[in-house]
Amino acid sequence: MPWTPPGSHLLQGAIDCHVHCAPHLNGRSVNVFEAVRQAAAAGMRGIGIMCNFQNSSGFAALANDELGHLGCHAFGGVIMQPTAGGVTLEVAKAAIGYGYGPGTGARFVSLPTHHTRYIAEREGRSPAFLETTFQVPPNGRVPDPVPAIMELCAEKDVVFDCGHVSGREAVALAEEAKRRGVHRLRTHGSRYAEDEIRAIVALGGYVELSFFILTHATQVGLTHVDEEKHRIAGGATIHDFAPRIRAAGERCILSTDAGVFLLPPPVEAFREYLLLVESVGFSEAEIRRMTATNPAALFGLSA
To answer: Which Pfam families does its entry note (predicted)?
Structure first.
């Protein structure tokens, strides 16, 4: 009888909404088709394809056309890095419409990940580079054209993603998003303070915590937005994550952020992550809420 790895049952019906299987400047552990096939074989319901260089909704549309019969739905979106066109309304509009007909375009529009002031400072970037990055200033005023992009996301019923900003900035963005009618909001809370997480949740946002930050992949320089390699100092442990997960409560999402060649393929990374989460006291019901119910609700995936 074949051996079933512990925790495999936790993958049934799960959605990993943060998978890096699109082409990249460094190695990937799987391509788009392999990611869908492996997720489907594990009984997963969906994967969200992330890319730091371009709109990934086309990859998702192609994967669904070819592999939709497997029952694992792929969805994509745009991270508004300079390589994808930057933080502009035109980039957001193009991404939302980019696919194979109605309903196949972007399911999320994200502010930059590795081209924000917060991340650039953590990566030790040059002053000249810092001047080109996105930030919400200390006064909390969200810069243009972000409010218009938020209104577009509200109109088109897609997720507005705060990207990799600080907790303070994420709270300011969540406040502005609520004012602009956004009802699908994702933040990446792996390094946020618990009070910041609670504030985002109170404003209707979801807080995602990803496996990548817990792994050995944080120990090396990875290529993100150019040909330089920069390492973000300071990893985390599952014991650091546990209070953040509890602070997010009913609005927490678990994802892998896997796909880099240094880590196991995303499905295996997800299994390992969920076992870690279970080991610090979270029940199977709580894990299913964070891996199935909440991602489906956020991204509008039908039952």
So the answer is: DUF6282
